[in-house]
């Protein structure tokens, strides 16, 4: 895949305290977040390289309105079943609610003032957001994806992007799932059938295409 810096964007998906802090939404559901946190250095490496090379950067955050008007009943029931009801009070404020401490992106990967942050109520970053409008206005045709979790929000965003005609690459060692075997399966799925969902690369490979010229 030929990469043009002017038409490429890095999308950093849901690197929030609710997903990466033991006191956040994922941690409150009983998941060990250490596996997810392990990719923080590689995501930071991507961020720094993209910024240095002039690649557009977009961050996403999953979360809901304080009144939960954008939370559908099915999602609410699923979250409640695992013991982390969306909107309930946790150590970092109300779980998965916009504006709460847990909703914030972790300090290590904090967006610059010039970088776009997309707040999304669903798993995919295109669902009920203006992400596509932003990308089209910039003339973006190629997306590099990183973040958490590989099997849910990253994969949902990837499939939405592919259906919209974007060329995509997923940075395998800058994504994580709660269970490593699921992460591995999703990475294999992406590159299967001749790259039906784009290609997978390492953080080192992605950085090389941006700054190793």
Which key phrases capture this entry?
213 residues, 9 helices, globular
Could you say which overall geometry the principal axes of the C-alpha atoms support? globular
What composes the largest sheet?
A: 6 strands, parallel
Using only CA atoms, what is the Rg?
16 Å
Mean pLDDT: 95
Secondary-structure content class: alpha/beta
Going by CATH, the homologous superfamily would be Isochorismatase-like
Secondary-structure element series = EHHHHEHEEEHEHEHEH
Number of β-strand runs? 8
Instruction: Give the DSSP E fraction (strand runs of 2 or more residues).
Output: 15-25%
CATH class annotation: Alpha Beta
Task: Describe what you observe in this structure.
With 213 residues, the protein is an alpha/beta fold. It has a single domain (5-211), classed as Isochorismatase-like (Rossmann fold), CATH 3.40.50. 38% of the residues lie in helices and 20% in strands. The chain has nine helices and eight strands. It has helices spanning 17-20, 25-28, 34-37, 40-53, 73-81, 131-138, 150-163, 180-195, 203-211, and strands at residues 8-13, 56-62, 89-90, 93-94, 116-120, 142-148, 167-176, 199-201. It has a six-stranded parallel beta sheet, with helices on both faces. It has a two-stranded antiparallel ribbon with strand order 3-4. Helix 8 (180-195) links the parallel strand 7 (167-176) and strand 8 (199-201). Helix 4 (40-53) runs parallel beside helix 9. The longest helix has 16 residues, at 180-195. The two termini are 15 Å apart. The relative contact order is 0.19. The mean pLDDT is 95.
């Amino acid at each position: 895949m030929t990469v043009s810096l002017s038409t490429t964007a890095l999308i950093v998906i849901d690197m929030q305290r609710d997903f990466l802090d033991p006191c956040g939404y994922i941690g409150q559901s009983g998941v060990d977040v250490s596996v997810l946190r392990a990719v923080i250095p590689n995501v930071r490496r991507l961020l720094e390289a993209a910024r240095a090379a002039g690649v557009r950067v977009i961050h996403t955050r999953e979360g809901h309105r304080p009144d939960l008007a954008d939370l559908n009943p099915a999602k609410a029931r699923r979250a409640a079943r695992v013991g982390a009801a969306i909107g309930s009070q946790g150590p970092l404020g109300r779980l998965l609610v916009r504006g709460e401490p847990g909703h914030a992106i972790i300090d290590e990967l904090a967006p610059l003032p010039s970088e776009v942050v997309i707040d999304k109520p669903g798993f995919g970053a295109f669902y009920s957001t203006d992400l596509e409008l932003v990308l089209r206005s910039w003339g973006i045709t190629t997306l590099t994806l990183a973040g958490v979790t590989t099997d849910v929000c990253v994969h949902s965003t990837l499939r939405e992007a592919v259906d919209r005609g974007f060329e995509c690459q997923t940075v395998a060692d800058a994504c994580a799932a709660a269970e490593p075997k699921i992460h591995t399966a999703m990475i294999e799925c992406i590159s299967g059938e001749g790259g039906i969902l784009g290609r997978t690369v390492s953080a080192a490979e992605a950085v090389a295409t941006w700054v190793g010229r």
